[in-house]
Amino acid sequence: MKDMVEESNQKKKDLLKNVKTLIHTARKISKELGTNFATEAYDDLPLIELEILLKEQVDQLQHLKDQRLKYIEELLAKESEICKKIGAKIVGFNNALPSEQEIKEFENYLNIQEMEMTRLSDLFKDSRRSILKMMEDLQATPALNFERMVCHDHNNFVFSPSNMSLLRDLRERLKEQVDAAKSEAQEKKETLKALWDYLDEPAEHRQHFLETYTGYSRITLNALNVEIKRCKEKRSENVANYVKKVRCEIENYWKLCKFSELQKKSFTAMKCQTYTDDLLTLHEMEAESLKKYYNNNKKIFELLDEWEIQFEKLKELDQRANDPDRYHNRGGQLLMEEKERKAAEKKLPKLEAQLDSLIEDYEKLNKKAFTVHGLSLKEYMNEKRENYEVEKENLKLARKQAKDKSAKKTPLSTSKRTPGASMLRVTPASNRLRTPGPSNMSRMTPAAKRKLPYDVSPNTSNKKRMVSTEKHKPTLVVNKVRRSGRKKTRRSKNDTMLSVSSYGNFQEHLENRDELRSSILPEETVLRKGSNMMTIKTPMKTPMKTPLKPVRRKVVASTPAGSSNARSLRSTPRSPKIVATPH
């Protein structure tokens, strides 16, 4: 019995010892895991059940610990890989078994590092692709270890800050080489084309060369140098013509840059007649210098050309304003000119302000004055305005002198008078109307309308003249106004006598001469007497100059009551037209 009691006590002691050990282990693991292990709930349990329960909890806690340690190892391995790739320092954990909070912070850190690695990897791939393309275009091979690693061992490339800086420098250096090669190739091709044009090289040779050597590689540049050397050697055989061509180019740049004569004379080689390669080189250098000067200040010259255009437009509009014929235009020309004037007046100040600003920048940068035809901008513009004022004064003086000279030569008797009723004249007695016949027509003044023809006057002198000339004169038709060449007849101081035939003879004459019936004056009144004669008294008036365009009016002859005289009208003068010749 005693042995049984001792054995029971011993088992109890062993159970208590195991329980304490399990509780200690559980608390330790819980502490490592960052949790709290509570034992208050186990006070009422038997020792055997308590031992079994504690064993289960210790196993669970140990499993959690093992899982956490494994996950931590994975995180540390991932960190090591990322840090090795990006060349960063490994951070790790401060504790062997970090808490969940520390693990979360480490996870965030790894995510950031992973994103940085991805960014650097993409940047490296893009840079490497660009570097390979540029090296291929330049037909260059990697010479340095770093270049070889980028081109051939890119999998082991470390994205460290130093390596990424070297990679960026390599890319920039190759880009500069490509740009320089492009510019050099373009310049050499332009030089070569100019030489080809000068030497009249065949188009087949040009096309074959350009198709063979494309791009801007070192091989292409070397081929261009060889071809340029060949063309220059061929050109040196006839250097004089090429010097003359370059001189034309220099003169063109002188004009574009608005150089003065003094600036042009500073290039003394322009007048040299000894044509050598050195002279050609001097001309090419001068042409290149002028080209650079023009391109650097192209904006200034363009604005200056625009200013000159607007200034000349204002001058032209001022000259049009002095033209009296401009007021006869009814197509809106005056309004258009006024709009152009206002636009030009607005543009000039703006252009001058822009020019002042650009020239000020030029003078600050180059430490010298900018000149236009040897003058400053202000002096040049003032000179243009002063010259225009002098031109206007000279033009006014010339017009005044021409007007005075014309007034001295023009006699007072030739002054023009307005055609009116006073211009109507009656033929004097010494120049009486003749009857309409086969050879004679009535004379008319330019101011009167054409009158109907009358019969033959009984004047015997006129009859004799008619008989002698009637046989040889053709039939005439009046169809054209005579404007000049008529002699003025001397008027008699006495009243003018006009003989008028009877209306019957007049009507018979019209029936025989159909070609004369071009018009009839329906309202004209003919005064007749028994003797078929009218005596018309016309007051004396000063002879008038025949107007260029006669006034064609309808005039009615009227006789005052109680007067024995009547007015007679003269027919409108017309040039005769031959319609038939009598046989």
UniProtKB/TrEMBL annotation:
Q: Sorted alphabetically, which keywords does the UniProt record give? A: Coiled coil
Q: Which domain of life is it from?
A: Eukaryota
Q: Where is the composition biased (Polar residues)?
A: 560-574
Q: Where is this region: Disordered?
A: 399-422, 452-471, 537-583
Tell me any Pfam family this protein matches: MAP65_ASE1
Residue stretches in coiled coil: 47-81, 164-195
Provide ranges: composition bias, Low complexity. 537-549
Question: What protein name is recorded for this chain?
Answer: Protein regulator of cytokinesis 1
What organism does the record attribute this protein to?
Trichogramma kaykai
Upper lineage is: Eukaryota, Metazoa, Ecdysozoa, Arthropoda, Hexapoda
